[in-house]
Design brief:
Elements lengths: L1 H23 L2 E17 L5 E13 L5 E10 L2 H9 L4 E9 L11 E10 L16
Length: 137
């Protein structure tokens, strides 16, 4: 009887591990998204992850009487890729991503994980905000 329960418990653990792998680590799809990088931020309470948004060209109908742009929300695991994206916000990017069936906290908040930058274009702009001049009297 003890051997039967051992076999059942080992089988349940193996099935659970297989389902966990399938849900969170098996790559469901991959592809390329193009658009203007809106932002990339590092955030999180316990696990600090890089999250970003790419605004794609074109519009889609939202609620009645409204127009919305296509937005691609993604996470980035690689710190070097995230830094490159953060330093070039507002430019056009072609980003390669992998899609998973579920998100896990230490990987990011979305199912889409950007793993490489295929191309970047755009004019380098100097975004300098000058402080308001104060007069002293």
């Amino acid at each position: 009887m003890g051997r039967f329960f051992t076999i059942v418990i080992v089988a349940l653990i193996a099935i659970g591990a297989g389902l966990f792998y399938w849900r969170f680590y098996w790559v469901f799809g991959e592809g390329v998204k193009s658009g203007e990088l809106n932002f990339v931020v590092k955030k999180g309470y316990v696990f600090k992850t890089y999250e970003g948004k790419l605004i794609q060209s074109g519009f889609r109908g939202g609620m009645a009487g409204s127009i919305q742009s296509y937005e691609f929300e993604f996470s980035v695991e690689n710190e070097q890729i995230a830094t490159t994206l953060m330093e070039n916000s507002g430019k056009q990017f072609d980003l390669h991503y992998k899609e998973y069936l579920g998100a896990i906290p230490w990987r990011g908040n979305t199912n889409y994980i950007v793993d490489s930058i295929l191309s970047m274009s755009g004019q380098p702009t100097e975004k300098v905000i000058k402080p308001k001049a104060h007069t002293t009297e």
